[in-house]
Write a structure and sequence with these properties.
The protein is an all-alpha fold. The protein is built from eight helices and no strands. The protein is 61% helix and 0% strand.
């Protein structure tokens, strides 16, 4: 599936995003991991105006808030990491949908290859209840403005 992806986009999806999921102790790659993976690519990070460290911090704030909402104080608790699995880390249905949207954006732009910017556009076009959307909101990213910056 990833043969139409540029080297940077492919790395974001098959290397960086699963690594971010393992780093957070998650067993599946979600849209939040795709966002972190895409932010490893300078072009996408610059277009969004956010770096991967800021996005990781925003995601940690959201995690802590979710735990606090159910009465768990996670401040100071070290998060578990998962060692590299022997097979590929599965993607959530939301992550698969974001990848499909990225391919559709590339087609609409008549691009021959899917880039990290197309991946970012696929994430920005996602549902507002999506974890990546929550991270973008926490970071104060205006999705409409960011999407306009990505337009060719």
């Amino acid at each position: 599936m990833f043969e139409r992806f540029t080297a940077g986009a492919r790395a974001a999806v098959v290397a960086h995003a699963p690594a971010e999921a393992r780093r957070r102790g998650d067993r599946r790659v979600g849209t939040e991991h795709l966002l972190l993976g895409v932010l490893h690519e300078a072009e996408a990070a610059q277009a969004l105006g956010v770096d991967v460290a800021s996005a990781r911090s925003a995601l940690a704030v959201l995690d802590d808030a979710a735990l606090a909402a159910i009465g768990v104080d996670a401040r100071g608790v070290e998060r578990a990491t998962i060692s590299a699995p022997s097979k590929r880390t599965p993607f959530t249905s939301g992550a698969k949908a974001a990848l499909s949207r990225a391919v559709a954006v590339a087609r609409r732009d008549t691009a021959r290859r899917v880039t990290a910017v197309h991946l970012l556009a696929g994430l920005l076009d996602g549902d507002r209840t999506d974890p990546a959307s929550d991270v973008l909101t926490e970071l104060g990213v205006d999705r409409v403005t960011a999407r306009a910056r990505l337009a060719p």
